[in-house]
Structures are given as C-alpha cells and as structure tokens.
Amino acid sequence: MSGWKHLCASLCRRAVPGTALGVWALAGLLWTVGPAAAGPADHDQARAALEAGEILPLPAILDRVQYEFIGQVLEVELERKDGRWLYEINLLAPDGQVLRLHYDARTTALVGAHGRNLDAAIRHGQPPYRPPPPAR
C-alpha cells in the first residue's frame, strides 16, 4: 500500500463515527497532507528516512498522540530541524483550542507542546485510546 493510501486508511479508522467534527477534522487533515502539500523530493526524503530507520511511521506517532492527549488531529507535518526529524501535529482540543505538538520522529517522545489551556487536553490518567507504541 502506498504511503498516501496507508495514511488515508489509517486516518479513516481514527475518525469519530457519526460526528461532523470527526469528518471535518479528517477532511482538513487530508487536505493539508495531500499529494500537493509536499514535493516529490520531500516525499522521497521522508521515505528514505523511514526505510533507514531514522523515523517511525506516522501511525506510531498518532498512537502516541492519542495516548497522551484528548482531541482530533487536524494537521501533520514531518520536518527536519537541527539534524533531528520531528512530527509537528496540530490538535483540536476538547475546548476548541488548537494545540501544536512536536514529537521526535525516531522515538515518539514529546519534545514540545504549545497552545492555550494545554492542560485541559492532557489525559491525566484517563484511559488511553490504545497503548503507547514502544519507544526506541
């Protein structure tokens, strides 16, 4: 399965059935990470990093986000900063605020979180969506 099809299948399984918010959040994510969002060189570079074991696949990061935070993923970007791969995730929190989360793409470790009322979106011992992926 191609990376794009895999991303779509993964996100469709995560959409909240029966909610307009889930549908719109999924539509927004697909729009922002669609094929036009990155050039062929970006896609090739990300694929090479995945195959070389420099980054974990997007579903591993999304599992970590669901484990640590409550909300809907709106946008995902993979970027390289200071020699380190990061997934930047925009998350719609339950109170309507958009949070920006930064995860290390190799370990799934949260390395930064920004946004108003961030504490309201942290799970604080609430049951996780699914168990966290193993950190490398």
List the helices and strands and how they pair.
Layout: H1 3-14, H2 20-32, H3 40-51, H4 58-68, E1 72-81, E2 84-92, E3 98-104, E4 110-114
Antiparallel strand pairs: 1-2, 2-3, 3-4
Continuous helix count: 4
Low-confidence region ranges: 1-37
The ordered H/E elements are HHHHEEEE
Biggest sheet: strands, sense, closure? 4 strands, antiparallel
Computed structural class: alpha+beta
Organism: Marinibaculum pumilum
Protein name: PepSY domain-containing protein
Write a brief caption for the model:
It comes from Marinibaculum pumilum. By secondary structure, the chain is α+β, with helices and mostly antiparallel strands. The protein is 35% helix and 23% strand.
Task: Describe it.
- With 136 residues, the chain is an alpha+beta fold.
- It has a single domain, classed as Nuclear Transport Factor 2, Chain: A, CATH 3.10.450.
- It contains 4 helices and 4 strands; from the N terminus they run ααααββββ.
- Strand 2 and strand 3 form a beta hairpin.
- The chain is globular and about 35 Å long.
